[in-house]
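Consortium newsletter contribution from the modelling node. Members have asked for a concrete example of what our holo predictions look like. Here is one, prepared for the 3-hydroxybutanoyl-coenzyme A complex that several groups have been discussing at recent meetings.
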Amino acid sequence: MTTTQTRPEVDPADLFQAIIDAEQKIEPHDWMPDAYRKTLIRQIAQHAHSEVIGMQPEANWISRAPTLHRKAILMAKVQDEAGHGLYLYAAAETLGITRDEMMELLHAGKHKYSSIFNYPTLSWADMGTIGWLVDGAAITNQVMLQRASYGPYSRAMVRICKEESFHQRQGFDILLTMMMGGSEAQREMVQDAVNRWWWPSLMMFGPNDSESTHTEQSMAWKIKRVSNDDLRQQFIDMTVEQSKVLGVTLPDPDLRWNEERGHYDFGEIDWDEFWAVVKGNGPMNRERIENKAGAWDDGAWVREAALAHSAKKRRVS
Ligand code: 3HC
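And here is the predicted structure:
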């Protein structure tokens, strides 16, 4: 008598977690829990929105760059950010959300973007400080995300991180030039920019772990490999040393090396400011969204023409 071999039913959720625990990638066609898909759409869309809205603060200085050389570098950087946004929108689309849906959710205030882009850029030193601190914080976060369990996100990060390194270096170079070869007024300009951007840059890593909604589950799913607080600490430890090379003072009187911890101790972040900005009450929130939604509306005719053209090509081919 032949016994039919019955393969034990494997719970897809167990297989999913086994793939993650084996350090394999989850791909778009793989089974995944709805909650995994949902949190990835949330995070990747927010990341993409941040890249695109992040173009506005720096674009403000392209026409006012001090030299053609600096203008060309800043233009290249802003164009890179647009490309980062497109990679990430494409990664989010593999999860079943459309580009239009993501735009509508952003413009309706139902999708977030990074709080950091809601601050004004008041001087050329802001361009250097954004490159040094904001792109520096972004790299700290994105190097970790290269190991995210979701394949398209992880691969997008590998490509983006290569370009982010250039972004951080060009910012540091602007500041070094101003600090080492600039006038006293230019050195004061740099210090003023660092005073304004230091704390908002620390907020980029998200709330303290104890207040984080998603960290525990995101780490179990290996989307997030390092917690908000640990990444923030990594960034602080690296950046304090760089500030000494620049000769700038970081605006935190509590910043001091703690030999026992092997890290820098630092002061309390103003979480009221953070949540006010996240909730839409930052200095530039309204303008950023108005510009973004306005550009989307102004570009509707281009999207319609491109879609009409590709539909016609499909019909005649
Ligand atoms: N700005 C806006 N919202 C933020 C935020 C910030 N800086 N930090 C956290 N939040 C939100 C979260 O989105 C979440 O709200 P939600 O549930 O409505 O989405 C809530 O605060 C609680 O935060 P959690 O820590 O629980 O959320 P996450 O686990 O998602 O961690 C994160 C937050 C570390 C920012 C994570 O989402 C992440 O790594 N995102 C991808 C990287 C990214 O977006 N980087 C910033 C901008 S990209 C950039 O800087 C471009 C560069 O070229 C300049």
